[in-house]
């Protein structure tokens, strides 16, 4: 017998009610699962934050030392100053605390005011007004006033004021001022307000130098005060490592001084030098003018590694490397230099429009003959030429351990035309960095083996030291080819266009090898004949080179030629270096 309609309706309501209860029960279970399992870590952290006070223990940043273990970057004790707004006053209670604090900040250089750019009184009054308004804010209980107060200033403030407290926050300090500034880099604040290294060693090795901060958690009462007999948990900070550089402090100082004098003497826009050890890749000295003070945190790029430029004839070493290694030519191979060479309707001329007749490959380098270099590139061909461009690792970073390195500019093979090959042979249409050029000559000096350049020799933490081993970057040439090229570059110095300068410097009794480069600077699709980059790279003694030295000047005004500018400056530096290294005359 069928159930009455009322009974069916009752059953349906009952099932719906049960379903709702089941859903509610399931929702409660899911909510509990979410709270107790999924959100468990967050709620534990929230509970702990109400009962525990956690403070960071800063790690001490590692020092940067020269090769003789002298600190180039270290730390000074410094403090962040906080004012407790309701208690801040002078201890005598009869002076304006803000006025007194302003006097201290101004007299001790905490407030940096440039009298040439600012109106000092106006700036000081504005700063005082800002401070006063902050102290009057009822919602402010304590106020961070200034960062990195020196130890001596801290003592003065503590003696004079009530309602102040300090938190230690060491300040980066560079004892030698701007010495090796571009190698060191600097420390500034990141977006989170934390110390971070930028550029150079400070940037590249920031993780090693910074260390890892620790923390301490103290149990606190309902008012937020630490409980004297309460519990605590501590995780010690791991201090940063000290870094010992390959940089020779004495040579760095000497070459920076010489470069400064040279930039001024030749009216150059900028200057760069690199001194490296060819058989290891160690950077013994590196610098640029203009420079800066690292503790002033200026963003001045390290031109030695960051400036892409067309170097000119100094790059003839690459096309000559290819010609000799591929046995297309020998040093004595000749060609006829009778006039301009026409390629794709372009005329390749010598730098002085003088032509040399029958000319050997060695004489191409001695005369710095663009026509000869372009002719040689035609004999080699694009594929083999680019093989050596890439073997010398042009168009890619050397991997030097400094932040901010550029890679140079080498076009993809499919974009090259015949004229591009010809001009690249004498250093136009292809861009390199000074460190790439120095590394090319170091490879030639090191019997064809290219070493990876580096500046950090040791990592030190407490009593433990880790020494960085030199690394082979590439075997570019056979020893036979390298020796032939060394001899050719020696004849460039002994019999080339600047032989007179070598004699005047008193270095004609030493075996020197090297090559000049003078390149017009490209400006909006053409080359400016009145503005050049001039470079000289050389090494000595040729038989067993102690160093490779690169000198580059940007836009010298006294002469546009490297033989008149970069060469005499290089010789001035080399004269001091042969004495320092104890190099004997040949």
From TrEMBL:
Give one GO molecular function term. Answer: penicillin binding
Family annotation (Gene3D superfamilies): 3.30.450.330, DD-peptidase/beta-lactamase superfamily, Penicillin-binding protein 2a (Domain 2)
Q: Which residues cross the membrane?
A: 20-38
Q: What is one term from the GO cellular component aspect held by the record?
A: plasma membrane
Q: Where can this protein be found? A: Membrane
Tell me where in this chain the Penicillin-binding protein dimerisation domain is found: 57-227
UniProt entry tagged with the keyword Membrane = yes
An individual GO BP term: cell wall organization
Q: What is its main location?
A: membrane
User: Which terms are listed as keywords in the entry?
Assistant: Membrane, Transmembrane, Transmembrane helix
Quote the PANTHER family the UniProt record gives: PEPTIDOGLYCAN D,D-TRANSPEPTIDASE (PTHR30627), PEPTIDOGLYCAN D,D-TRANSPEPTIDASE FTSI (PTHR30627:SF1)
Protein name (Swiss-Prot/TrEMBL): Penicillin-binding protein transpeptidase domain-containing protein
Organism of derivation = candidate division CPR3 bacterium 4484_211
